[in-house]
Amino acid sequence: MTRGFFITIDGGDGAGKSVQAKRLEESLRADGIPVLLCRDPGSTRLGEAVREILLGRSEIEICPQSEMLLFMAARAEMVHETILPALEEDGVVIADRFLLSTLVYQGIAGGLPLDEIMRVGQVAVRGRFPDLTILLDLPAEVGMARISRPLDRIEQKGLAFHKKVEAGYREALDFLAEKSGTVPLLIDAAGDPDQIASEIYGEVTRRLRAVGLGRRE
Fold first, then answer.
1. Distance between CA 74 and CA 87 in Å, rounded?
2. Mean pLDDT by 10 residues, the chain (217 residues)
3. Pairing between strand 5-11 and 92-96?
4. Are 157 and 117 in contact (CB under 8 A)?
5. What tens digit of pLDDT does each residue of 14-25 get?
6. How far apart are the first and last CA of the chain?
7. In the prediction, which pLDDT does 1 show?
8. How many other CB atoms are found less than 10 A from the CB of residue 139?
9. What pLDDT is recorded for position 212?
10. Left, alpha or beta for 163 (phi > 0: left; psi -120 to 50: alpha)?
11. Where does residue 87 rank: exposed (0-12), middle (13-18), buried (19+ CB within 10 A)?
12. Neighbouring C-beta atoms of residue 194, cutoff 10 Å
């Protein structure tokens, strides 16, 4: 089993995942902690190509099963190329989305059985689940209203779909925690971004110190 510490930040569209992941990376790096930030899907040549299909090609009809398998293929490559090597060096890995997103978007909102997704997920992640999964909780209508750029293919699925996503996150988080042992952390994402970043940083550093990966003086 690899060492290191694996953190994922997840939540609905517009919840601020990418911003908070980047801020956490910067704070940990300032503490002298080796840290890798990656995005799912992405962070490898294969992952970025798959990301373009999944998010950028709105003219392509993709069924939930195909969506799930494409996400898993990109995830498997990211685990192989970036995540496992960083963890083997006792680093901290922060992933902007991971398996929880697939359980919610293609599972609860898309209609696929969670157990079916989990079986494929175990292969894709090679049994290396996150040590900590942070869920940024935000009403779907608030998150969608925050998005000022053109919507990607999945964001275009409409508010009714994203309300299913919002409602499904806690159920999927409990399911993931039970099946994988990952520790869940629920954060209210409606507040001030600085306060949210401070809360995340405080919780993460406390957990890192507990496993001997805290700030290096």
1. 18
2. 86 96 97 96 97 92 94 98 96 98 97 98 96 97 94 94 96 95 95 96 94 73
3. parallel
4. no
5. 999 999 999 999
6. 27
7. 46
8. 16
9. 87
10. alpha
11. buried
12. 9
**Token representation of residue 18:** 């990418």
pTM of the model: 0.94
- The alpha helices in the chain, defined as continuous H runs, are 17-30, 45-51, 64-78, 84-88, 99-102, 114-124, 140-146, 159-180, 193-210
Q: What's the count of helices (H) and strands (E) in the chain, helices before strands?
A: 9, 5
Q: State the CB neighbour count (10 A cutoff) for residue 19.
A: 15
Query: Contact 94/25 with Cβ under 8 angstroms?
Result: yes
Q: Give pLDDT, residue 214.
A: 73
CA-to-CA dists, residue 217 to 4, 32, 91, 204, 209, angstroms: 18, 8, 16, 17, 12
Q: Alpha carbon of 105 to those of 25, 166, 201: distances in Å?
A: 26, 10, 27
Q: How far apart are CA 50 and CA 12, in angstroms?
A: 20
Under 8 Å between Cβ of 10 and 134: yes
User: CB of 94 within 8 A of CB of 35?
Assistant: yes
Q: Check residue 140 and give its pLDDT.
A: 96
pLDDT for 15 equals 96
- Which residues, other chains included, contact 209 with Cβ-Cβ below 8 Å and sequence gap of 6+? 215
